[in-house]
Amino acid sequence: MKIIVDAFGGDNSPLAVLQGAAQAVEEYGVEIVLCGDEEKIKQVCAQNNISLQNMEIANANGFIDVHEEPTEILKSRSDCSMAVGLKLLAEGKGDAFVTAGSTGAVVVGASMYVKRIKGVKRAALAPIMPCKGGNFMLMDSGANLECRPEMLLQFGLMASIFMEKVMNVKSPRVGLANVGAEDTKGTQTLIDAYHLLQKAPVNFIGNVEGRDVPLGMCDVCVAEGMVGNMILKVTEGVAMFFMSELKSVFTTNAKTKLSYLLLKSNMKGLKKKMDYTEVGGAPLMGVQKPVIKAHGSSDAKAIKNAIRQAKTFAERHVIASIEQALSEMKEQTQPQNA
Amino acid sequence: MKIIVDAFGGDNSPLAVLQGAAQAVEEYGVEIVLCGDEEKIKQVCAQNNISLQNMEIANANGFIDVHEEPTEILKSRSDCSMAVGLKLLAEGKGDAFVTAGSTGAVVVGASMYVKRIKGVKRAALAPIMPCKGGNFMLMDSGANLECRPEMLLQFGLMASIFMEKVMNVKSPRVGLANVGAEDTKGTQTLIDAYHLLQKAPVNFIGNVEGRDVPLGMCDVCVAEGMVGNMILKVTEGVAMFFMSELKSVFTTNAKTKLSYLLLKSNMKGLKKKMDYTEVGGAPLMGVQKPVIKAHGSSDAKAIKNAIRQAKTFAERHVIASIEQALSEMKEQTQPQNA
Questions:
Q1: Mutate to test the interface with A, among B147, B259, B265 (most CBs of A within 10 A)
Q2: Three-state SS at A177
Q3: Which residues of A touch B175 (CB under 8 A)?
């Protein structure tokens, strides 16, 4: 299994990426292709005592910045570390690709270099988020602000296959993010998507309200990008707000400080549970090869986890299953010839 | 000051409503008009030792259930407790109206019985929610799923006036809920709304992302109903998820249980901060008289707080200020005659 890694993506690159890649080689026995400035990679590895065993380097010129226009990855930045990695992936020089770089660029770049799966309307980043009792996959999380019903249907199907194959969730419960449970709720797009999902080969549990999602009512939350982005970021914001309030409770006085000492190890468990980097990155669903977008602020551990996730994504043949499901669904909805 | 109260709205009505109303009479010196089955009200008050001093009763037949179609309040249910209350308000028989009943029915009923302010495109429920460092008003929270830019402009203006006049926030920071900070982000509706808000007589701070809102970046969060509903309910869900995780941390073992005992009073403060019922209910903005929708699960304290909020809403002349601001804005945007 060979994973292509963008060595210059993310706030803590290249150091955290190189450390995470080296840890992944050791723990998961993968081979790595590092994309980026060869000289710089070798220099940082030497300075930080990072082994390059089972890693090769694909030289690239610079990297695409988060503030750049994502489409630049196809124009002036077509030799940056992310573009080089995506091209290697498209050419079959590796089994999966991991980057912590620009979200916009990886969505645009993967759609153009790696191409979408035949029949898939839109690719979308689908982060796996913590909720009561486990995790759920959120698809879409922001790339496709407004969607057509068929796009939402495909999101549900693709995410369901990922959760079953990679996250080992049996018959994942697929919910449609909406303002109420009844099938008459929401915009016409959501009403139509509801009826499409009802007939789809997924375990569709109907509409889910914003409150149900963190409470663990579904394993897959299908959402238009605008709504999904709010679910993702409000969750992040509320968790941060809560943690800061908790911190001020703990630091109130000597008594609360003492109680924090008693709780410390347990609180770490809670923090870990709330920490999406534990799960790995966000798969980019809908393209022909496995692509994982790690969080921009990823540390070495987060990169390592994203590489593990990319490995599972590739070895469980998720994309082949999606292709098969799409073609079966197409056959069923097409009129039969006598 | 006379507040009209729907005695049969909410999960805990009529008892909690009657208790809350009696407390409000005592604490805030208001007069109350209770709407609902007169016999039943007298009976519950007698059984529970609730004084009816400074309270009168407007008899009504039954109440509108949360599961009923909201428009029924105008048809078969036009003599229910909520409809009677709204009609009394429209007739000037009281200064403000409070209900913990059906959200849909109060939006429909108030728009039809009390009528919208002249020039206001849509009425919307605007809950006041906790965030880091204080509270913010969310408008819209779900009534108007898809909005036109002018509607979002009016939401920002109305909510800003409420926050300034009732919540004593000086020059409230108005943010537009969107997927990114730049003025090019989001749908065309949001881009157009951005430019309208920029020119409006409010302290517009630009787009706010989902993460910024709980972290207290704005005092008014302007949102289309679909997005606002997600902000409201995801916040609620994440807070519940977090509280349940925290509870399991505290109950892990003897050491964590001891630490909870040390923290108990401080944790209560945190819980109180997260509790929207402390602030009161959600004002219905855009209609000609003050209407407050208390949460369906309101207890006596929440009803009392909603009545206090309704009193301030009425006595600070919020609606007159909105009317004035709207007419000034209209004058400025209309071409001048030579």
A1: B259
A2: strand
A3: none
Interface touch B210/A262, C-beta < 8 Å: no
Give contacts of B68 with chain A, Cβ < 8 Å: none
Backbone φ/ψ region at B71: left (φ over 0), alpha (ψ -120 to 50), beta: alpha
How far is B315 from chain A, CA to nearest CA, in Å? 33
Residues 6+ apart with CB under 8 A from A75: none
Given an 8 Å threshold on Cβ–Cβ distance, is B145 in contact with A187? Answer: yes
Residues A85-118 pLDDT 10s: 999 999 999 999 999 999 989 999 999 999 999 9
Q: Which chain B residues have a beta carbon less than 8 Å from that of A216?
A: 241
* B290 CA: distance to closest CA in chain A (Å): 25
Rounded CA gap, A251 and A40, in Å? 43
**Residue B276: its pLDDT value, please?**
63
Which region among A76-80, A147-151, B86-90, B229-233 has the lowest average model confidence (pLDDT)?
A: A76-80
By 3-state DSSP, what share of chain A in percent is helix, strand and coil, each rounded to 5?
A: 50, 15, 35
C-beta atoms of A256 and B238 within 8 A: no
Indicate whether this complex's ipTM tops 0.90: yes
- Whether B7 contacts B85, CB under 8 Å: no
Q: Catalogue the long-range contacts made by A260-268 (C-beta closer than 8 Å, 24 or more residues apart).
A: A260/B259, A262/B255, A262/B256, A262/B258, A262/B259, A262/B262, A263/B249, A263/B250, A263/B255, A263/B256, A263/B259, A266/B249, A266/B252, A266/B256, A267/B249
- Report angle CA A225, A230, A234 to the nearest 5 degrees: 155
